[in-house]
Amino acid sequence: MAKGEALKTQIEELRSAIPELKGVLLASNEGLPIAHSLSNGSDPNRVAAMAAAASSLGRRISDSMSAGTLGEVSIQAEEGALFVYSAGSKAVLAVLSPQGGNAGLIHLEARTAAKQIGDLF
User: Are strands 23-28 and 91-98 parallel, antiparallel or unpaired?
Assistant: First the structure.
């Protein structure tokens, strides 16, 4: 299976595991979309840029605190949440959840997906 197909498969498997998600997106650390499955009409370019920016800020904070390598960043809002996971050294995985989404299940599934995606790179 080609790398692009494998990445898309990882995203679709995450969406299947948690059907209530608003979307899943894989972006480069530079903020360019690599693969996505967005159901809420979000612009993948915009989500990719924001996810990469959140990850970059998280890495800076983690570095300044001498806390080690960044694992994830969570943003809770009134209407939902955005979870951003490091997917190896070259990419980030963004997961958009509705308000009241099961954060434990999201973390469980998305951490595994981010690790597998990171291994593909």
Answer: antiparallel
- What tens digit of pLDDT does each residue of 36-91 get? 999 868 899 999 999 999 999 998 998 899 988 888 899 999 999 999 999 988 99
Rounded Cα–Cα distance for residues 8 and 77 (Å): 27
Please say whether the beta carbons of 117 and 26 come within 8 A.
yes
Which positions ≥6 away from 121 have C-beta within 8 Å? 87, 88, 89, 90, 91
Domains of the chain from N-terminus onward: 3-120 (3.30.450.30)
**Residue 60 to residues 8, 45, 52, Cα–Cα distance (Å):** 29, 23, 12
